[in-house]
Design a protein that fits this description.
148 residues; alpha+beta; 7-stranded mixed sheet; 30% helix; binds coenzyme A; acyltransferase; EC 2.3.1.266; cytoplasm; GNAT_dom
């Protein structure tokens, strides 16, 4: 059976995080974006490691008592196997331990797996940010989870 661990992201993870990022997204974040997140006092990033290999990451910013999810991604060959749900659960627990009472995120309406992941965990759609993903010409759905 595979050994899975979830822990805080550190700078030495960045090579592997960038592999996930570049393979999971068509408009990936740069290395410098992640370097800034690692030293950002508001930011909390977790990684999923399977048998010693980093296969995914997710993060949020804690703004007062709200956790704003910035990103969550798994290597394509590990998607659809429950790791996203596991990671999201750890992000929610971490946010709660840090004092967050709600969690919010933006998602593309066409991203069916991500919308399923969030709605199954109780996130509710509450609003739209028009043209949020300008490079893709797509709006963002805003989702919230209350009472963490
Ligand atoms: C979104 C993502 C993090 C979800 O993680 P995951 O490990 O694949 O999700 P899970 O296996 O926990 O499944 C979550 C739900 O999505 C569904 N799902 C997963 N992959 C799917 C796919 N390729 N097509 C359709 N549904 C899919 C699962 O069936 C499950 O729904 P269910 O509860 O109705 O069965 C992951 O797919 C991913 O990295 N996607 C690319 C990056 C991305 O879009 N991130 C989100 C940005 S908002």
């Amino acid at each position: 059976m595979a050994e899975i661990s979830i822990r805080r992201m550190q700078e030495s993870d960045l090579d592997a995080v960038l592999v996930v990022e570049n393979r999971a997204f068509t408009t990936p974040w740069s290395r410098s974006a992640f370097e800034e997140e690692i030293i950002n006092d508001l930011a909390y990033y977790l990684v999923v490691v399977e048998d010693g290999k980093l296969i995914g990451y997710g993060g949020f910013w804690l703004v007062l008592d709200e956790a704003h999810v910035t990103n969550i991604a798994l290597l394509p060959e590990h998607q659809g196997a429950g790791y996203g749900s596991l990671l999201l659960e750890h992000m929610i627990l971490t946010a709660k331990m840090l004092g967050a009472v709600s969690m919010t995120l933006e998602v593309r309406p066409s991203n069916v797996p991500a919308r399923k992941l969030y709605s199954r965990r109780g996130f509710a759609e509450r609003g739209l940010r028009p043209n949020y993903y300008a490079e893709l010409g797509e709006d963002a759905l805003i989702m919230w989870l209350d009472n963490l």
